[in-house]
Structure formats: C-alpha cells, structure tokens
Amino acid sequence: MITCRQFRANLQPGTADAALLDHLRHCDACLDYAMGIDPDLFFRSIGGEELVPPGGLDAFVGDVMSQVRVRGAETSLAPRRAAGVWQRLAIAATVAAGVTGATLVYRIEQRPPAAHPTQTAAAAVKSAVARSAALATKSFVETYSSHNATIVEVPNEGSDAKIVMIFDDTLPADL
Amino acid sequence: MAAEVLRMIPTKESVEPDDRQLVEQIRQGDDGAFETLVRRKTSKVYGLCYRVIGNGEDAKDISQLVFLKLWENLEKYDSAYAFDTWLYRMVTNVAIDFMRNKQSRDNAVNSNLRLVKTSVDPEQTVTVQRKEVESVFNVVSGVLSPKQKTIFVMSEMEDLRSSEIARILGCRESTVRNHLFNARKLMQQQLKKRFPEYARLWEESR
To answer: Does any CB of chain A come closer than 8 Å to the CB of residue B181?
Structure first.
C-alpha cells in the first residue's frame, strides 16, 4: 500500500487509480483529506473490502455444498423415475385402448335394446289378450234378422259350432 | 542456479486451476471443484449482494441462492466469455429481483411513515468517519431504484468500468453512465435532506 504522503501528492478529483483507492479505503487519516479534494470519493471509501458472510466462510460454503448435494440427489433420481421411449409408447397404447374400450361400452349401453325372441312372443300374447278383451266387451248377438242381409253358414266338421258370415250394409263396421 | 531451480518448482498459485478449468471439472462431476469455486467467489458474490441489499443475513441468503443457480446452470456457461461477467450477471439478476420484491413489501408497510428531519446543525464542521459512511450510504441509497443502486455499487465500490457493467447487465454503456449520473444526483439530494453536515462537503468543493 502506498504511503499517506504519496496518496496526498497524487490524489486528483475523479481518480480511478487502484492504488489510491486502496489507500483511501484503509487509511482513516486520509479519508477526510480526500473529501476536501473530491467529495465523490465519499462512497468510494466503503468499497474494496473482503466481506465475509455472517457465520464465516466455512459455514457458508458448507451450507451451499449441502444444498447442492440435496439438489444433486433429486436430479439423479429423476432419470430413474422417467420412462424410456418404449415404456412411454406402451403406456400410451394402453391408455388409448382403455379409452376406446370405454367409449364402445358406453355407446352400446346408450343404444335402444334389440328385439328379443321371447320378448316378441310375450308382446304378441299380450296384444292378443287385449284384443280378445276388447271383443269380449262387445254385445253378443244370438239372433239376427234383416231384409238386406245375406247370411252364410259354414258347417264345421266334428264340432257343434258354426261359422256364420253376415253381409249387411246397415251393421256397424266393428261388429 | 538455486534461484532457477526454485523458479521451476510450481508454486501453490500456479497449480491452482483457473475459473474455466474449475467449471470444466465441475461439468465432469467433480464436487470438490465446485467447493473450490464457491470458496473463491464467496467474497465477491456476498460483497456485491451486501452492498446492494444492505443487510448481512439477506445478503447471505441471496448469495447462497446465487451459488445454487450457478450450479444448476453451469452447463449454459460459454467459456468464450469471462466467468466473472457471467457470475456477476447472475448476482445482479437475483439481487435486483430481491430488491424489487423488498421495495414493494416495504412500500406497503411504510406508506404511513413520515420522514423525520435530522437536528444536526449544517454549519458544524465534520470529520468523516469510515464506519459512518456505510450507514449514510444505506440510508441515502434507499431512494435509488434497484438497478441504479446495483450500477452505483458496481461502479463505485467494486471499481468496475462502465463497459464491464454494460456487459454484465446487457445494456448500453450510455445507459450505465446515465444511471450513474442520476444515482449521484439523487443521493446528493438525500444527503442534503438527511445529512446536511456531509452535504456541506460538496458545497465547499465548488
């Protein structure tokens, strides 16, 4: 470090000389003198020191290194967790198959049920019963006489019942 | 003859790898090299953080964050450029971010506080004490924007040239000079308001 005499002899306003600045930052006796020459050196006097974090350098470095090791462990685990190309393809295919299957099942469930043979027979029986019930409610005609009617009797073999056909324009259509 | 032999023996300094060599070793998985780099750069990183942030504990936390970022991004470092420029860029980015967040927090907390005027007689003569300069700086630099303060610290306390600061911050040299000019002006105004005894130094020198 230069002497106070050298410092005072060489100091100029706006100096950037490293030796002069170094002296300024370490010599209290010259600080006041420097302010009289160049007040802009006021804040320059607090620079240049070697600053150490609270707790000391070793503790600081130890903290940084332990955090780095933790991060290092995290990143070294990461590749093991990540799947390879074939694994990724297999996972994608499985997912796609699952989605397609689920869609198909859903569509089938939404479709109206197909006509089933037993259901058809049951429906036919049901409609025949309904029809016969409708017929049963109608009045039963035992005798019939009309001048306009044409009555045809068809004999039925082996039975007492006879089929009678009446053709008469004055009769209701549903009789 | 003996002197020549002594010159041929490698000294501790000559065998120590430079920053680029250390980075290469770290990239090859050498944790010890990273520890050496942290040990070597702590003073620079912490010093800049401390000057910009003005608080030892916060500066320590920010410095640790910088080294973690450094470790995570070391692959991105291009050894064609100076390592310190790259490192300083990282420090300034993290520190400026921290300052911006802190300023917005402080603004919210201190919005109801009023500036109390000092009762020092401006006419009294003053002997500059180094320990006081630091506390004066911490007070008056509060008016600077994080970027202005960072540039001021790099220029006045870290003795970096405007061209270097421009490279670090990725801006033009004229922008750096502009920020410096404004920072000085604002701080002198604050000195007049808060520390008239020191402001007299500027007035006397005119």
So the answer is: no
Minimal CA separation from B178 to chain A, in Å: 16
Which distant-in-sequence residues (6+ apart) come within 8 Å of B189 by Cβ? B143
Q: Tell me the HSE value of A173 on the side-chain side, using a 13 A CA sphere.
A: 0
Concatenate the DSSP letters of all residues of B121-164 into one string.
Answer: -TTS-----HHHHHHHHHHHGGGS-HHHHHHHIIIIIS---HHH
Q: Kindly report, residue by residue over A38-48, the tens digit of the pLDDT.
A: 888 888 888 87
Q: How far is B49 from chain A (nearest CA, A)?
A: 10
**Measured between CA atoms, how close is A104 to chain B, in angstroms?**
48
Report the distance separating Cα A62 and Cα B39, nearest Å: 10
| ipTM over cut 0.95 | no
List the one residue out of B109, B88, B102 whose CA is nearest residue B46.
Answer: B88
Give yes or no for A142 touching B (CB within 8 A).
Answer: no
Q: Exposed (0-12), middle (13-18) or buried (19+): which is B86, by Cβ within 10 Å?
A: buried
Largest separation between any pair of C-alpha atoms in chain A: 160
Please write the tens of the pLDDT for every residue from B104-133: 777 666 554 444 444 445 445 556 677 788
* Torsions phi, psi for B96 (to 5 deg): -65, -40
Q: Residues 96-135, chain B: which have Cβ within 8 Å of A? A: 127-130, 133-134
- The SS3 of residue A165 is strand
Cβ(B172)–Cβ(B166) under 8 Å? yes
Q: How far apart are CA A174 and CA A139, in angstroms?
A: 11
Q: Is A54 on the interface with B (CB under 8 A)?
A: yes
Chain A residues in contact with B128 by the CB 8 A cut-off are 31-32, 35, 42, 45
Number of helices (H) and strands (E) in chain A: give both, helices first: 6, 2
Q: What is the pLDDT of residue A85?
A: 77
A174 in contact with chain B, both atoms CB, cutoff 8 A: no
Do residues B23 and B73 touch, judged by C-beta distance below 8 A? no
Q: Between B128 and A58, name the one with better pLDDT.
A: A58
| Torsion angles phi and psi, residue A92, rounded to 5 | -65, -40
Say if B47 is an interface residue toward chain A (CB within 8 Å).
yes
B78 touches B120 (CB < 8 A) = no
